Amino acid sequence: MAPRLNFLRLGRHLPASKKVSYNPRPALCLRLAQSRSITADEKPLPEADKGPGPNQEQLPHVSEEAAATGKIMGEGGPELEQGTPVQEVLKRDEESKEKAPKVMQDQIQSSSSSSSSNGTRSFSTSARWRQEAAVVNFEDSGIEMAGHNFELPALPIPANMHLKHRYAPIVKQVTNLLMRDGKLSVAQRNMAMILNHLRTASPPTVNPDRPLLPGSPPASHLPLNPTLYLTLAIDSVAPLLRLRSQKGMAGGGVALQMPVPLALRQRRRQAVMWILDAASKKPTRGSGRGGFAQKVAEELVAIVEGRSGVWDRRGGIHKLAVGARANLNVRRSRR
After folding, report:
1. DSSP per residue over 3-35, as a string?
2. Closest Cα partner for 320 from 273, 262, 257?
3. Which of 62, 157, 234, 311 is deepest in the core (most CB within 10 A)?
4. CA-CA distance, 297 to 270, in Å (whole number)?
5. SS3 93
6. 8 A C-beta contact, residue 262 and residue 270
7. Predicted model pTM
8. Quick one: pLDDT at residue 331?
């Protein structure tokens, strides 16, 4: 263990001649360089330009910027001098009107008499805006169409020209039902393969025992419009009703089957689910990523020709729903 030192007692035993004395150092003296005086023969140095920096300049007004842009582009920008006349401002302030010059008072009186007869202002700041808001037709405006592969659209653009609504509703619904694990691009590719198969397939032969919807075009015309082909096949096997099990309607907790009508989108969804179920049970022929789309397209052709088992499922649902119509009277009697 290291020895301990006591500095308080150690100072008492030191000899007086060896005591440490404190000698303060002299303060430092800073000598500044003498400034050289400018004589009459010497010229003063040029001063730096103290103009505003690049971030200190005041930005122009929106109207001034629009006017400058229109001048560069060769278009008519807004008129900066246009505004509300002083005479109209003074009309609303009687105290300022009395203190206005005699010439301006005479102009106010003459303008008020003329405006009362005509009922309009000398000029309106909103007249030009209303003219620009009118419907524009590119053909009448004289805009050159050179360099365009297609003509410019006529304004106003119709509502069905929106980017998100460019597909038919039935195509979009079937695509969403085809999608798995959120892979929309794969579903869109399968939908394109299905429509391509319907377009290139031979015309179907309609079964008279299982007719399609009334008013449908001839079977030879269906490949010309694959979207109509798809819609006709789905709507022909779409069920009109569904059965809902409702407990306690007969008393004692016994459930009864109640027929419920379906909307158009619900009918199509049920039909598409039946078609996808039937296509998934078909044997796979060959390999490739378009195998399932091929089976779905073949099932649609089989529906139009009356060979699909989806017709039997639709008939069974309708038969049960018609037989359950008597349960509706039970519901009314309990009320």
Report:
1. PP--HHHHTTSS-GGG-----PPPPP-PPPPPP
2. 257
3. 234
4. 17
5. coil
6. yes
7. 0.53
8. 59
Reported as half-sphere exposure (CB side, CA atoms, 13 A), residue 272 has a value of: 19
Q: How far apart are CA 241 and CA 173, in angstroms?
A: 20
Tokens 């009922």 belong to which residue?
119
Q: Which of 293, 303, 333 is nearest to 222 (CA)?
A: 303
Residue 54 CA to residue 234 CA, distance in Å, equals 67
Give residue 138's pLDDT: 52
Which backbone phi and psi does 202 adopt, to 5 degrees? -70, 155
Mean pLDDT split into 10-residue runs, the chain, 335 residues: 59 52 54 54 62 64 76 70 66 80 82 61 47 51 66 76 84 95 94 95 92 90 94 95 82 82 95 95 84 94 94 93 84 58
Region label for 234, one of left (φ > 0), alpha (ψ between -120 and 50) or beta (otherwise)? alpha
Contact 259, 328 (CB under 8 A): yes
| Tokens, residue 34 | 């003498």
Q: Is 233 exposed, middle or buried (0-12, 13-18, 19+ CB in 10 A)?
A: buried
Buried (b) or exposed (e) across 7-31, using 16+ Cβ within 10 A?
Answer: eeeeeeeeeeeeeeeeeeeeeeeee
Per the structure block, which two tokens stand in for 158? 């119709």
Query: Which residue in the block uniquely carries the two structure tokens 């020709």?
Result: 305
- Of 204, 232, 230, nearest in space to 219 by CA: 204
Give whole-number Cα distances, 232 to 204, 215, 228, in Å: 12, 10, 6
Query: Which residue is it, tokens 């709507």?
Result: 235
Separation of alpha carbons 208 and 158, rounded Å: 41
Residue type at 6 in one-letter notation: N
